[in-house]
Amino acid sequence: MLVAESQVDGRERALVECAAPSLFPPHVSCVAVRFPASPPASALAVLPRELADARPERQAAYLAGRHCAVRALDALGLPPFAPPYDGPNRPPVWPAAAVGSITHTGSYAAAAVARAENAVAIGLDAEGLVSDRRARGVATLVAHHEEMDVARRAGLSLGEALTVLFSIKEAAFKCVYPIGRTYFGYLDAKVECPARRRGSGAGGTASD
Q1: Model-level pTM?
Q2: Taking the domains of the chain in order of start, what are their residue ranges?
């Protein structure tokens, strides 16, 4: 998901709901917010003690993502629940009746949730646009040459192409990992036909 940078008034500590990405089928509830640089006072979540000494921006991102998760669960008629913190590189732990995914970048956070009876897993990812200069330095660590060629032929700049491919693979990992609990690298996954979608992004569900 490509997310344009926006200004959030640093004096405010409120979350501002914004349009959620239309990436999923109707049975998936998706909520998105813009959040301030300091921990938002209106978040429907509690900061875990593991993040008590984290930077304010990290705390704000955590609370905003969990707030989106609570709102998305509520939209499905499921009890309010903020997935607990389970370490910096671990996926959120969802209630047994739900599957979901949380993402945040810059001042943007979103969560996508479905009932477990309708999906096995969900992957959602948002990324700020990578510059062409940075993309030239890291492209071979993220994408195969064929992937980049297809994305460039679709009209994407170098930075856009790498950002889209990176985001798709992040979303794929978030979707697959809860099922098999297996890590894989960016070059272990291959995107055959990324589409040009400015301001939209990467997301998917796995079902039976």
Answers
A1: 0.84
A2: 2-125, 129-203
